[in-house]
Amino acid sequence: MLDETIASLDTARDLFEQAGESGDYVIVLDPLRVRLDVDGDGTTGADETFAPFAAALFGSGAEELTAKQKSKGVTGLSQGIGLDRADALWLAGYSQVVAAPLDWLLAHDFHAFYDAYLHRVFPKAGLPMADYASGATLFMDADSDAGIADLIAGIHMLRFPVTDSDRLAGVLDRLKAIPALSRRNWDAILAETDDNLELVPSPSQTSLVPGQRVTQEMVDAWLATLDRVDAVLAGELLLPHWRFRQGFDLALYFAEATETDLVLILTGQGAVPFLRDGPIADAQDFADGNRVFGDDWPLFALWFN
């Protein structure tokens, strides 16, 4: 299933990149009318729309969101989003945001973790411990003690042998494609002369997000952040590890890892093969982004891609 999902995402990327090459077009999409089969029952009910996600993102329901936008003179999501060639590149980038972690999973054997813990998530999947979700009492009560035991087992099994080294190396290529596509996206955005229901607006365009305009300072900070991300992915800027004076070479990990043991990487032993001397990323490397976006940087990262 994951293989098919990745293949579909790669097909989508190719098509989105083609759509982003050229063309002066706008396709209006009303996201508040998009329906999602949230409960997996094969049908989409009246309440299974994008509106709850809009509420989570913007702190308002669909009607409240529209009212807020109108009060601020903003066109509003209720009138749709105008998808143009810049947005095609934005979507191409997001295809890799989704595909990269899936490819990372498929590069590993995670069956031991699945068997040890995921009966808690998929109780009817016939996993080895599914019939023992409750047992005898050790500290608190039968359900709580069994839950704690499963959590410990899950943490213990957070070690995944690499079964496809080429695939793991390919994850790095996907990660590198994300900032590259983001730059192409911003080149296209900044070249626009219209102002038509922009998903990601330029400093001269109107934002659909209530009270949040995009400034040139934001664009410059984002592009500077992409430069630092590129340096990390190229192994030119190392990641800090709390235990070592040397830095963790992310590019070396993707190229040479034979196992990903998350606990040992965190505690130190699993990180040793990927340590080397060189510049280590710190807050100063991302100072522009921190200064401009502040604590809201995760939301801007999701928006700007």
UniProtKB/TrEMBL annotation:
Origin: domain of life: Bacteria
Protein name (record): Uncharacterized protein
Native source species: Devosia aurantiaca
